[in-house]
Amino acid sequence: FGFIGNMHGDEPVGREIAMEVGRWVCERATTTRETTSEAETRERALAKRLVNEATLFVVPTVNPDGFAAKTRGNARGVDLNRNFPYTRFSLPKSLSGRASATALIMRWSEKWAMNGALNYHEGALVANYPWDGNDDGSTSYSAAPDDATFRYLASSYAQAHPTMSKSAEFEGGITNGAAWYPLWGGMQDWHYVQTGTYSLTVEVDDEKWPSEDKLGAIVDEHVNASIDCVASNCRTGEHGR
Question: I need a labelling partner for 76 at 20 to 30 A (CA). Which of 27, 34, 138, 160 fits?
């Protein structure tokens, strides 16, 4: 299962969430100090189960040059979340002409063929699932073959977050990508087609650069939801078609 942040350089919060997810699991799985509460005992048990039953990958930043410049695209102006090939729309399948970061993510994903992945973005608060686009370019629901499973995983994330599922804009805090914000060449659709990965795009906050006093709470809320989502994925053992 992968936790992937900062694909758009001007959306930095995912960097912090991805790193904190790794820290959450490592600290709770390895600590030897005496537990102080039932909640802590449950968290330790979950962390150990994840370590024993899953392989977790943390990729804090896909676009370090964009982050340094505070730009959406990379140093060459490429939007990495429009740069993936997608066989469903007959786009080129090769690595040729891809941004280096895109090619690296593709090679890594094909090597490990993860069951699931979370790709953190900013600009809204919602769990977004495939398909991200329609053949005709319309803004309308486009169901993947495993639509029910995608909805289950997106809902498990939204419900584990304190406010996402209460959204006035998105019913239950989830959305089909094509019904909301159509795009082509995104990572989550490519993941599903090429490696069978249940990949979600998680929009973590309306603000792209939240103030320091807000950042900690945003990160904590999404770490908890992320852990719940990967636990749900482990329970189902599902892999995309």
Answer: 138
| Three-state secondary structure string covering 53-105 | HCCCEEECCCCHHHHHHCCCCCCCCCCHHHCCCCHHHCCCCCCCCCCHHHHHH
Residue 50, helix vs strand vs coil: helix
Question: Which residues have CB under 8 Å from 45's CB, separation 6+?
Answer: none
Q: Distance (Å, rounded) from C-alpha 150 to C-alpha 167? A: 19
How crowded is residue 15: how many other Cβ atoms within 10 Å of its Cβ? Answer: 20
Which of 192, 166, 170 minimizes the C-alpha distance to 179?
170
b/e for 79-114, b at 16 or more Cβ within 10 A?
bbbebbbbebeeeeeeeeebbebbbebbeebeeeeb
Q: Which residues are catalytic?
A: 203
* Entry pTM: 0.93
Phi-psi sector, 132: left (phi>0), alpha (psi -120 to 50), beta:
alpha
Residue corresponding to tokens 């792209």: 208
In degrees and rounded to multiples of 5, residue 119 shows phi and psi of -115, 110
Q: Which domains does the chain have, with CATH numbers?
A: 2-236 (3.40.630.10)
CA 30, distance to chain mean position in Å, is: 25
